[in-house]
């Protein structure tokens, strides 16, 4: 609190009074006070995150009104699933930064849903069906999960004919912790059906799993765009095509309050422009 007082600048007494006034106004405690430290309560954390977001939006409004709208500036925070972020989004950033020299980007590779308001995220790539939300969504593409294995593995173990056969095969599983694993396949219903598999190798890296599959360690399930070169070169073979689940949408999410932000519009337009030129997403994988 002393450091906060110096940064304003103000007195420690004044800062304490302002915090007390906030607590009285909201009718809740914002800080946990002990003889050794101060810590935010849950309500205090919510207030801090929301206030930070509001102040950030005010800075964006000031920048939009006082600067050339064709030259957006500031910092933009983008979250993405780690695989797509590392292999697809990150390689696009150099050109984006050259095109907009007054912009900076925080690219967060996170394999979990983010709270865009509390974590101050301007844009988020999200895989899967969207629940009812006040967020604005722009659909980028559909992702197809496929099952595949190397010719060497299939020569030794044979190819599964139905999803039930996976219980007797060596499956390579993407997960943080071993346990019981199920893969979803189409069964004529809208949602499909989960089938128990036999996981012999568990990793939290899809890249490493694909490498193990190439070496003949077993059957892997991955997004089709990730292994298109391996399929074309014959290093992997696609399995259970007739049982593949429905594609999963990939959306670019943003808060409605960010729609007018020049830097957000610049990033959205750039990503959509470049996305249309990525071969792995432009041409769907043939079902043969």
Radius of gyration over C-alpha positions, nearest whole angstrom: 24 Å
Tally of discrete structural domains: 3
What is the helix content?
25-40%
Unreliable stretches (pLDDT < 50, length at least 5) are none
Structure write-up:
With 288 residues, the protein is an alpha/beta fold. The chain has 3 domains: 2-40, no CATH class; 48-139 and 250-282, 3-Layer(aba) Sandwich (D-Maltodextrin-Binding Protein, domain 2), CATH 3.40.190.10; 145-243, D-Maltodextrin-Binding Protein, domain 2 (3-Layer(aba) Sandwich). Helix content is 36%, strand content 24%. It has helices at residues 2-7, 12-26, 42-66, 82-89, 93-99, 151-157, 206-214, 224-233, 262-275, 279-282; strands at 31-33, 38-40, 74-80, 103-109, 123-127, 136-143, 145-149, 171-174, 182-185, 193-196, 199-203, 219-223, 237-239, 248-254. A hairpin with a 7-residue loop joins strand 9 and strand 10 (193-196).
How are the SSEs ordered, and which strands pair?
Elements: H1 2-7, H2 12-26, E1 31-33, E2 38-40, H3 42-66, E3 74-80, H4 82-89, H5 93-99, E4 103-109, E5 123-127, E6 136-143, E7 145-149, H6 151-157, E8 171-174, E9 182-185, E10 193-196, E11 199-203, H7 206-214, E12 219-223, H8 224-233, E13 237-239, E14 248-254, H9 262-275, H10 279-282
Parallel strand pairs: 3-4, 3-5, 8-11, 8-12
Antiparallel strand pairs: 1-2, 5-14, 6-14, 7-12, 7-13, 9-10
Quick rundown:
By secondary structure, this protein is of the alpha/beta class. It has helices at residues 2-7, 12-26, 42-66, 82-89, 93-99, 151-157, 206-214, 224-233, 262-275, 279-282; strands at 31-33, 38-40, 74-80, 103-109, 123-127, 136-143, 145-149, 171-174, 182-185, 193-196, 199-203, 219-223, 237-239, 248-254.
